[in-house]
Each structure stands twice: as structure tokens, then as C-alpha cells.
Amino acid sequence: MSIKIEIFSSPGCGKCGHAKEVLRKLADELGGDNIQWREVNILDEMDHAVDLGVLSTPSIVVDGKLVFASLPSVKNLRTELERMLDMSDQDSKT
Predict the structure, then answer these.
(1) Which residues of 6-36 are buried (b: 16+ CB within 10 A; e: fewer)?
(2) E strands of 1-85, at which residues?
(3) Best label site of 11, 47, 80, 94, fewest CB within 10 Å?
(4) How many CB atoms lie within 10 A of CB 48?
């Protein structure tokens, strides 16, 4: 199984660019096939962002749930992604 990540960003947001780079690197390290992700321009998909509770950028949504409402540390993001992947693997075995 895989997890689906949406990273919400806005044009001109410096932290958003950094968040995308970190996420791209972690996705590759943790197994790119296990992590599907897409960039979401908050201005283009404002209704979707509001539905998920995204109020600022960068924000990270995993499997439809807002997990980080601001830029997490690399360590915290890695820990959470590993935990979600482990949960996903357990769910696929049951």
C-alpha cells in the first residue's frame, strides 16, 4: 500500500519551496513507490484547502487528513511518514 500526500503551497512562498524539496527527498529515500504526492496551489484549490482545514502554507495532508499545518522539521516529517507507511503496510496485511 501507499500513502497519498498533498503539499499545499502558495506562489512566492520560500518555505514552500523548501518543504517540497524535503518531501521529494524523503519520498525517494522511503520508497518512491510507497508515497504518492502532489503539489497543491492553495490559490487554485482554495475550496479543497478549506475542506481539509488548511489555513496557511506550507501545509501537509496525508491520506486526506491535515497532519502538519506548518513546516515540520525534517526529523518530524520523516518520523510521521515512516509511521504512516508502517500503518499502511499493517492494514494491507489484514
Answers:
(1) bbbbbeebeebeebbebbeebbeebeeeebe
(2) 3-9, 35-41, 59-62, 65-68
(3) 94
(4) 14
Whole-structure pTM value:
0.87
Domain CATH for 20: 3.40.30.10
| Chain segment 37-68, per-residue pLDDT in tens | 899 999 999 999 999 999 999 999 999 999 99
The range of the structural domain enclosing residue 41 comes to: 3-93
pLDDT value at position 94?
Answer: 55
Q: Helix axis angle, 74-93 relative to 14-31, nearest 10°? A: 40
